[in-house]
TrEMBL record:
It comes from the Bacteria. This is NADH:ubiquinone reductase (non-electrogenic). Signal peptide: none annotated. InterPro entries: FAD/NAD-bd_sf, FAD/NAD-binding_dom, NDH-2. Belongs to the NADH dehydrogenase family.
Amino acid sequence: MTRTTNRHHVVIIGAGFGGLFAAKKFKNENVQVTIVDRTNHHLFQPLLYQVATGILSEGEIAPSIRQILADQDNVRVVKGEVRNVDINEQTVTADLGGTDAVLNYDSLILAAGAGQSYFGNEQFAEFAPGMKSVDDALEIRARVTGAFERAEITTDPEARKRLLTFVVVGAGPTGVELAGQLAEMSHRTLRDEFREINTEDTRILLIDGGPQVLAPFGKRLGRKAARRLEDLGVDIVLNSLVTDVSKEGVRYKDMKTEEEHFVPSYAKIWSAGVAASPLGKHVAEQAGIEVDRAGRVPVNDDLTLGEHRNIFIVGDMMSKDRLPGVAQVAMQGGQYAASTILDEVNNGTAPEGRVPFSYFDKGSMAIVSRFNAVVKMNKAEVSGFFGWVMWLVLHLLYMVGFRNRAVAAFSWGLNSVSRRRWQLVATRQQLHARNAIRKLRDLEDKEGIRSIEVRDNLRFGEGRDTRAVSD
């Protein structure tokens, strides 16, 4: 796939915050841009938990990449899975629905983000989905609503207790927000909607290996968030490591007493760690650079890869100055990379003359419940109602598209005054598709074949698929 002009060609891998903000920076500039992503949408990942708990629909947080960039004539969108990056030949090979395309680049921006990490226990994923994609959120919604539906019809007290026990692993922002919303669903939204069960009997466990919830926010805000969760009925289990996740429940070990506990649970959710896209390790090895334990690539002051000063790595894939894996780091990194490339194209600035990347910390925030959030901005700490208002304003500001902002604001306002939620639709396909595709892949591995349904769900690093045998 050759370039259509003689302009400087920038290939961007990933349409998350880093990739999208980089692409938008090139608007009306004398460069050609190709953005490659395995999905057709830009995902506002911090709001996935609201899709999982029925506050927002997936459309509000995942607008089409093509629609977002429709008015940028110099940007081409390619939906495909990147299979190879050759940093010496300066090519990217992508699988476009069974057809390989080779993209030549002058500059490359790697912004493929991160996936869920199970810390070497990938078998946990079958029973405890993460929270990294629209598919994950819809599956979790189906599991949560399905638990209540099953509890309604069972006559076995122990089975009902298991169905009404939810376990969230990981007490970072995603885990805290999810646990808080599960509590509000149980005690507020679903109250009086069932006849055979009392949803207020629901038990919600939040398990973490650290000594506090929301560790990056500091002890004071962590304690406030924990107290609010406990007021909502969430059981917080700290200093405990999960040792097993099965169909029946979760086993964890208290790190202080070495005692093991087993919690029977139908719906388990994993939010305990992240691992950078394997693309980072793939390019780092070619450059002779070692990635860290999370797969992140150490970068230069200008966010480039070793001696390859035309390859920029941004967002969750990069390791620099212990910057956190948050949206703001990706946004600012993507914009910096684009500005640096434009400075070279328009002004001839050599790599040696580049201004180093400088991150401006706009703070961190997490919503705990309705009318309650925690916000940390440098030394300033805000919690409660004013923190909640700040959370609403900032998230509306960074949502893409006027309609999405308007719908989200309306939904949040309605949720504040009404206990109902209007996005609780769940299907069997959402519940079973991920594991069904995984089992189909195992069956096909034995035959050495690959159907389109499986091939299109293979990610980089899982091995090159064989040619499809059916459509």
